[in-house]
Amino acid sequence: MRPGVVAVAGEALVDIVPAPVGGYYELAPGGSPANVAVGLARLGVPTRMLARLAADPLGERLRAHLAANGVDLAHAVAAREPTSLALVSVDAEGVASYDFRVDGTADWQWSAAELEGVLAPGSTGPVVAVHSGSLALTTPPGAAVLRALLVRAAAEATISYDPNCRPLLMGDPARVRAAAAELLATADVVKISAEDLTWLLPGRAPADVLDDWLGRGPALVAVTLGPDGVLAGTASGLRTRRPGRRVAVVDTVGAGDSFSAALLAGLHRRGLLGAAHRAALRAIDAASLNDVLDDAVAAAAITCSRRGADPPTAGELAGRWQAAPTGS
Question: Does domain 5-101+121-317 have CATH number 3.40.1190.20?
Answer without folding.
Answer: yes
